[in-house]
Design a protein that fits this description.
Number of helices: 8
Radius of gyration: 34 Å
Number of strands: 11
Distance between the termini: 61 Å
Helix content: 40-55%
Shape: elongated
């Protein structure tokens, strides 16, 4: 719809048009909690009702430090989500920081607050009004702009009515933001549950494999030798003695396998020594390279200690298997909020970007998943010939 002549208001003097706009906005708010459809509908309704040429709806991001274009009338709707403006920058940023309307009838290029966006056709429009979208319960949620190609001397009533519309829309935008945040948290919770189940199943498969390939096979062999010894007792005593010796050897090996399986479920060293000394014990158990340990003596919650110990164990196993290193260092640092574990080696390194599969990739995924299950993160820094650094940072739950 074309702009009204210079000096005219926004057209709200017609009660029917004003009522139609308010009803339309209420319908848009009631249509659903999605921010995109809401802002697109509001922008379209405002342009139709106010005889302006374009409307932009900028929404404050979760940090409160920048505005993002969330809704626009065609042909600028293809820029939604692409235009970002720090609070305080440009006319919209000024309105967001000052929480005051801004009116520019002409000559916006000379206004020190103005910032040119070629993607939004700034050169095609002469006059503009920018108002904060805020209400008392929600606070500031964004900025609403309207522009006209022809000069428009906007009145105080125009600004008040646009501000009222912004206040009405603010509550809906706030609810849409809360809905998005809730949906993101639900998705994160679902992903967390999936990771927990996957980790449990992976651990069960590993333990089942250890028992099947180790303990079960040894017991079968042990039964065979005992049967052979029992038969030999009636004949050759030398054969009986040999079979019994072999049975005893298999018994010892089976006990070792059982101890290893138990250790796979819960490292007893953590119960006895704690994480710091447990890491030192782990380092001493690796004969293939020299491992130095620098750690804090603070005791952490049990599940945090297990996760960090397993990450260190997997990282050192990767060093032994793949790095061709001679030295490694394990660091553990803790404060009131988080624990940091870092494993560094002087090995051959690798290209992290291309290590998406193949040998060693399962171990990397396993470490990352353990950190993520704790609400933390794992990063890997490596370059060919320059060694590898694995860093895990996990939060420490408050008492």
């Amino acid at each position: 719809m074309s702009a009204s002549p210079a000096g005219h208001g926004l057209g709200f003097s017609d009660p029917e048009r004003e009522n139609a706009l308010l009803v339309g906005i209420i319908d848009a708010i009631s249509a659903g909690p999605e921010l995109g459809p809401l802002t697109a509908s509001v922008a379209r309704l405002i342009v139709e009702a106010t005889a302006t040429d374009v409307c932009f709806v900028h929404v404050l991001d979760d940090s409160g430090g920048a505005l993002t274009l969330a809704g626009a009338t065609p042909p600028y709707d293809n820029q939604v989500g692409r235009i970002h403006l720090p609070v305080g920058d440009g006319v919209s940023g000024w309105v967001a920081s000052q929480r005051k309307p801004a009116v520019i009838a002409a000559g916006k290029e000379t206004d020190p607050r103005y910032r040119y966006f070629p993607e939004l056709g700034g050169q095609d429009f002469t006059s503009m009004v920018s108002v904060p979208m805020e209400s008392r319960p929600t606070g500031l949620v964004g900025v609403l702009n309207v522009h006209t190609r022809q000069r428009r001397d906007f009145t105080e009533r125009d600004v008040r009515l646009l501000t009222s519309i912004g206040s009405l829309v603010a509550g809906a935008v706030h609810q849409a933001r809360l809905h998005r945040q809730l949906a993101a948290r639900e998705h994160a919770a679902e992903r967390f549950a999936e990771q927990v189940i996957a980790a449990q199943e992976s651990e069960r498969r590993r333990l089942a494999g250890d028992i099947h390939d180790g303990i079960a096979q040894r017991l079968v062999s042990l039964a065979f030798h005992l049967d052979a010894a029992a038969a030999a007792v009636l004949g050759d005593a030398k054969v009986a003695a040999s079979e019994l010796a072999r049975a005893r050897e298999l018994t010892d090996m089976t006990l070792d396998e059982a101890d290893a399986a138990i250790f796979g479920l819960r490292p007893p060293v953590l119960d006895d020594l704690g994480l710091a000394d447990g890491l030192a014990s782990l380092a001493r158990s690796i004969a293939q390279l020299q491992v130095r340990v620098a750690s804090s003596d603070a005791r952490l919650p049990e599940h945090v200690e297990v996760a960090l110990y397993r990450i260190a164990q997997e990282a050192l196993q990767n060093v032994v298997k793949h790095a061709r290193a001679t030295q490694a260092k394990v660091e553990l640092r803790c404060d009131d909020a988080r624990a940091l574990l870092r494993v560094t080696d002087n090995g051959v390194g690798f290209d992290v970007a291309t290590r998406s599969g193949g040998e060693g990739s399962y171990g990397l995924r396993s470490m990352a998943e353990r950190a993520e299950l704790m609400g933390g993160r794992l990063t890997i820094a490596s370059r060919d010939g320059l060694g590898t650094t694995v860093t895990a940072v996990v939060p420490i739950p408050s008492a």
